[in-house]
Amino acid sequence: MIFHPLKLHGAFRIALNPREDTRGFFARFFCTEEFRAQGLLPEIAQINTSFSRAAGTVRGLHFQRPPAADSKVVRCLRGAIRDVIVDLRARSPQFGQWEAVDLTAENRDMVYVPPGFAHGFQTLLPDTELLYLHGAAYSPAHEGGVAHDDPELGIDWALPVANLSPRDAALPRLHDLEPLAT
Ligand SMILES: Cc1cn([C@H]2C[C@H](O)[C@@H](COP(=O)(O)OP(=O)(O)O[C@H]3O[C@@H](C)C(=O)[C@@H](O)[C@H]3O)O2)c(=O)[nH]c1=O
């Protein structure tokens, strides 16, 4: 696995390091030891998947508050997404900044989202399927989010925004959020 630090401290784009032969390739998808060596949290409490029919679909921006704060590793298995992370760590000099990475079935890249970040994405193609490794179990009592269209964040979505869930359409703005203690 090849770890590329993102602009937002503690977040990474992770590329596969494939061993190729005439059949195709073999590669590590996840490795506890390599995660630890990079200072990333290696716990996996839950593995989730999502499927979105239409291009332009936006999900997010979501997080879980302590003590259920989770790290996420996000990979696009089919289709393509623009993955977006927002630093909400109370003590971070980058608080409120966002960053985007395109994840596609072809590039097979992943994003490591540390605890204290909000995460969301927009599908760039129809029939897009994601896989998530979550560092903590789902806890409805601790979930929170921030509006994908908060002008203070100014996220530059690739396509017109489609198919927001009712929950996502009602998420608060950054200004009305309590920063995340991590
Ligand atoms: C995550 C999760 C959701 N649910 C329920 C809650 C809800 O009724 C239904 C669908 O959940 P959501 O609407 O939150 O699905 P979705 O909007 O796709 O939520 C996801 O968005 C992206 C951006 C993320 O980063 C993920 O961590 C997750 O928050 O599934 C579970 O029962 N278990 C779970 O582990």
Supply the key terms.
182 residues; five-stranded antiparallel sheet; 2 helices; 13 strands; 5% helix
Give me the secondary-structure topology.
Blueprint: E1 2-5, E2 12-15, E3 19-21, E4 24-26, H1 32-37, E5 46-52, E6 58-64, E7 72-78, E8 80-87, E9 98-104, E10 110-113, E11 117-123, E12 128-134, E13 143-145, H2 166-169
Antiparallel strand pairs: 1-2, 2-10, 3-4, 5-12, 6-11, 6-13, 7-10, 7-12, 8-9, 8-11
The structure holds dtdp-4-keto-L-rhamnose.
Walkthrough of the structure:
The protein is mainly beta. It has one domain (2-176): Jelly Rolls (Sandwich), CATH 2.60.120.10. The chain is built from two helices and 13 strands, in the order ββββαβββββββββα. The protein has helices at 32-37, 166-169; strands spanning 2-5, 12-15, 19-21, 24-26, 46-52, 58-64, 72-78, 80-87, 98-104, 110-113, 117-123, 128-134, 143-145. The strands form three sheets. The chain has a six-stranded antiparallel β-sheet with strand order 1-2-10-7-12-5, with no helix packed on it. The chain has a five-stranded antiparallel β-sheet with strand order 9-8-11-6-13, with no helix packed on it. Strands 3-4 form a two-stranded antiparallel ribbon. The longest helix is centred in the first third of the chain and has 6 residues, at 32-37. The two termini are 26 Å apart. The structure holds dtdp-4-keto-L-rhamnose. The site of dtdp-4-keto-L-rhamnose has 14 residues, from β5, β6 and β11. Dtdp-4-keto-L-rhamnose (TDO) binds at residues 46, 48, 50, 59-60, 62, 72, 119-121, 132, 138, 165, 167.
